[in-house]
Amino acid sequence: MPDKTSKSAPAGPWLQQAEAVFFDLDGTLVDSARDLAVACNRMCQGLGLPPPDEKHVRHWIGNGVPKLIQRTLAYCASQAGVPEPDFQQAKALFDAAYRDTVGQYSRLFPGVRAGLEKVRAAGKPMVCITNKPLEFTETLLKQFGVYGWFSLILAGDNVERKKPDPWPLRHAAAFLRQPVEQCLMVGDSRHDIQAGKQAPCPVVCVSYGYNHGQPISDFGADAVINSLAEL
């Protein structure tokens, strides 16, 4: 649901001015928190740790799977009063669990399909830029029938540097042969804003995303919208 406490600014003519649109995935297009929480819970069970609540996992999403695992291990090990388990063992358990559950509970946020269709109708190429591994990114985009809508998918394991570094945005612009300044980044977190500012290109954020539980309106996006249909 949209964040009713955040101040929302109109998107303005961002879509009309953009030559291409870059979209974040988790928290922007797809609500994937429950899938990720289930995988974290199964990982912790396999390690003998108490599982985290989904509300905690929602705050840990946004920097890719390795960081999600690290945050989960740090929190759950501290709750149990034990040393953190081996990361590689934990990651193997997480990956196996997430392959089983990816897409099981995920859904497109309200307005996402309408927003993507609006961008397609305007003839703007779209790129998915996420810190999620490519394997899981492709699974979700295919599940929701939008995989073929993207000219390029830049994920957490097929880029030189991940967001908040601007490298993926600059690479996407170069791939499309467009000046990055004339592209638009659409995301839900401060990392999307940081990447866009450094690229540099305009950044529009959605109010309903994860952003580590903090209001996105506090981080200097060019606009905050409540639905991608507002683009």
Characteristic key phrases:
231 residues; alpha/beta; Rossmann fold; DNA polymerase, domain 1; 2 domains; 6-stranded parallel β-sheet; two-stranded antiparallel ribbon; 9 helices; 8 strands; disordered N terminus
Description:
- Helix 2 packs across helix 5 and helix 4 crosses helix 5 (87-101).
- The protein has helices at 14-17, 33-47, 54-60, 65-80, 87-101, 112-121, 134-143, 167-176, 190-198; strands spanning 20-23, 30-31, 107-108, 126-129, 152-154, 183-187, 203-206, 223-225.
- The strands form two sheets. It has a six-stranded parallel beta sheet, with helices on both faces. Strands 2-3 form a two-stranded antiparallel sheet.
- It is elongated and about 55 Å long.
- Helix content is 42%, strand content 12%.
- It has two domains: 14-31 and 107-230, Rossmann fold; 33-101, DNA polymerase, domain 1, CATH 1.10.150.
- The protein has 231 residues and is α/β, with parallel strands linked by helices.
- It has nine helices and eight strands.
Q: Secondary structure elements and their pairing?
A:
Elements lengths: L13 H4 L2 E4 L6 E2 L1 H15 L6 H7 L4 H16 L6 H15 L5 E2 L3 H10 L4 E4 L4 H10 L8 E3 L12 H10 L6 E5 L2 H9 L4 E4 L16 E3 L6
Parallel strand pairs: 1-4, 1-6, 4-5, 6-7, 7-8
Antiparallel strand pairs: 2-3
The proportion of residues forming helix, as a percent range, comes to 40-55%
Low-confidence runs = 1-10
Within the largest sheet, what's the order of strands?
A: 5-4-1-6-7-8
Structural class computed from helices and strand pairing: alpha/beta
Mean pLDDT: 93
| Cα end-to-end separation | 17 Å
Please provide the count of β strands: 8
Number of domains in the coordinates? 2
What characterizes the major β-sheet? Answer: 6 strands, parallel
Q: State the name of the first-level CATH class of the largest domain.
A: Alpha Beta
CATH architecture of the largest domain: 3-Layer(aba) Sandwich
